[in-house]
Amino acid sequence: AAPSLRTVGGYRLDAPAGEVGLQVMIVADVGGSEPVVYQVPLTYRGQEEPSLAHALVGVSEHGVLGTRWIYDGCHDPVFASAFVDLLTGRAQAQHTSISHTGEPRVQGHTPGDATHLRMAGHQVLAGEQSNTSLIVSLTSQPTGTPLPPVMVKVFRVLAPGDNPDVVVAGALSDAGSPYVPSVFGHVSGAWGDPRDPQASCNDGDGAVGTGDLAFAQEYLPAAKEGDVRLFV
After folding, report:
1. Strand order in 145-155's β-sheet?
2. pTM for this one?
3. Is residue 200 very low, low, confident or very high in pLDDT (cuts 50, 70, 90)?
4. Which of 28, 118, 162, 216 would suit a FRET pair with 138, their CA atoms being 20 to 30 Å apart?
């Protein structure tokens, strides 16, 4: 069936310099027999960024800000850094349409205090997959001490309830299994009923979908996707 998109939620993140708009749209495709909910991270820039040419979504005209270049947020280092701050609890998600208002339904979770961590760099893993995986280099502040990288998996297709990646890896990691990377944290959120044209969790009601938006764990460069060791 032809896609039929409906906004069911979303949130914003604050860029440190305030020059790049950071928005995450949560949209549902209701054109098929069952709705499918997607998470779409976007960045809005006032000037074209040549290093992000491969991630350009499109160009639009804003009534006040003028021409805006729109990029896939996962590839933009400004978004990646802000998303890591959300994950570690250093930053708070913002309401998608009301200024200076937090979005409490979107929260970062880590096993301990991680607010001292900062992103030093990131890269996006290539290959066909339903999620977008970011390899993030971290430093500890204020010393700037480099730390082992983590893999942040941004879920593109959302489903209510606990994501198996978070639950299974977390349980094995907590049990001390040497066969899985240690869990770094996850981001949870909520969205409206895709079957209800009026429902959006940003309106303060109608939030029927609560689940995981992203998952982060220790990055093992030599590991392979679906490594059988996970199940030994």
Report:
1. 107-109, 183-192, 207-218, 145-155, 131-140, 117-124
2. 0.89
3. low
4. 162
